[in-house]
Specification:
There is one protein chain. The protein is about 55% helix and about 5% strand. It has 17 helices and ten strands. The strands form five sheets. The protein has a two-stranded antiparallel sheet. A two-stranded antiparallel sheet has the order 3-4. A two-stranded antiparallel sheet has the order 5-6. Helix 2 crosses helix 4, helix 12 packs across helix 13 and helix 12 crosses helix 15. The relative contact order is 0.09.
Length: about 400
């Protein structure tokens, strides 16, 4: 069964306590956000009542009872809202915890009570209320009503507006000011904190009452705000995260020599200055990678030699591992092999490998070795002759 797109329904009016003398011009403004939120709950509530009421009935479908069920629900919540203050304030001799609740919660309870009252016998005695199939059927019927335009939002908001005024006995979500003249009312409406406003930020269509302007402005995704990382750009709030991690010059990045040991995280825009200021340490990291067995003292001396052989500014131009490694190797080829010092275990003294090789090259040691070699050859010849 197709749902009718537009059906006239009763819009409840707030109960008046009889004729009042005095001001007759009343401000009719209320919190548009709360009204909209209440209006949105009506369709799911109606869908729940229709589904639970027709479950197990082969002759009825949720769509077949939707029109009548809607009228019953509107009448029910209207009556409950009109008697709300009397039930929870007057009869209870003062406001209770329930009476101080938010209008949305109060009306939501009314809708839930109505839906519960419409459950048929099958729904009550079976496990239908806890089944996943029930939730899916309710969601499907909600979508069906929305697609067919069964209960338009503006009509629901008109009902929600009346319900809010009926249950908001503290006047926290609607204006109850009264005026002696139409002019006085008009002047008030132009400044009332519940007057409806739309966001002025380009691209935002949010609607709210004037009292929520500051709150909305503080979170509006379309508002242009300064960069959170203190760069010179101003961007939309909704684009802030993407800006900060992509194009922002102040985004934090790891040093290019992070893998070799430089653990610095610095703003992208000062990377060049960082590489220039820390070239001494970057050279040490590269040498540690090239000469894995060398001591730290040897590598520090080598760094000094490299810095003397080439200016720090020239070395700092290499801002990543591969280019600086290449420059270091070129300079080392000109400087010669790295002098590595090892520790003598017996004497606990440092001996240079180069000194050991030089000692073996001295003339008197060479002569002695030659004489010993000649003597050995003569003795071997004599032994051979005696054996023959």
């Amino acid at each position: 069964m197709d749902l009718p797109a537009n059906d006239a329904e009763l819009v409840p009016e707030k109960i008046e306590d009889g004729k009042e003398e005095g001001p007759s011009f009343k401000c009719d403004l209320s919190d548009t956000e709360v009204v909209h939120k209440i209006a949105q709950m009506f369709v799911p509530g109606l869908a729940t009542a229709c589904v639970d009421n027709t479950t197990g009935d082969i002759f009825k479908s949720p769509a077949s009872v939707a029109v009548d069920m809607r009228k019953e629900m509107v009448d029910y919540v209207a009556q409950r809202s009109e008697s709300f203050i009397a039930e929870y304030v007057i009869l209870e001799a003062g406001p209770k915890a329930e009476a101080s609740g938010h209008p949305y919660d109060i009306v939501s309870d009314f809708v839930d009570d109505f839906a519960s009252s419409k459950r048929n016998l099958f729904s009550r005695v079976s496990g239908w209320l806890l089944s996943e199939k029930r939730e899916e059927k309710i969601d499907d019927f909600v979508q069906e009503m929305e697609i067919n335009g069964f209960w338009l939002l503006d009509r629901r908001e008109a009902i929600a507006h009346t319900l809010l005024k009926n249950v908001d006995f503290k006047n926290a979500f609607h204006c109850n000011r009264k005026f002696m003249s139409e002019e006085g009312l008009a002047e008030h409406v132009s400044h009332c904190s519940f007057r409806s406003m739309t966001c002025s930020n380009d691209g935002c269509n949010a609607r709210f009452c004037a009292s929520h302007l500051e709150k909305h402005d503080s979170v509006c995704p379309f508002k242009i705000v300064p960069c959170e990382q203190k760069c010179s750009d101003s961007i939309r709030r909704r684009e802030m995260d993407r800006h900060c991690i992509t194009v922002c010059p102040m985004k934090l990045v790891n040093c290019p020599f992070y893998a070799l040991g430089c653990q610095s995280a610095i703003p992208y825009c000062v990377m060049e200055q960082h590489c220039s200021d820390t070239i001494h340490f970057h050279l040490l990291y590269v040498l540690q990678f090239i000469h894995k067995e060398a001591s730290e003292e040897d590598l520090k001396r080598r760094v000094e030699q490299l810095e003397q052989a080439a200016s720090s500014s020239r070395l700092a131009e290499a801002r990543e591992v591969r280019s600086l490694t290449s420059k270091v190797k070129d300079l080392e080829a000109k400087l010669g092999p790295l002098e590595v010092h090892i520790k003598n275990k017996d004497s606990e003294e440092n001996v240079e490998i180069s000194n050991i090789s030089n000692a073996l090259d001295e003339p008197h040691i060479k002569d002695s070795q030659e004489r010993m070699g000649t003597s050995n050859l003569v003795n071997a010849s004599r032994e051979a002759e005696s054996l023959s």
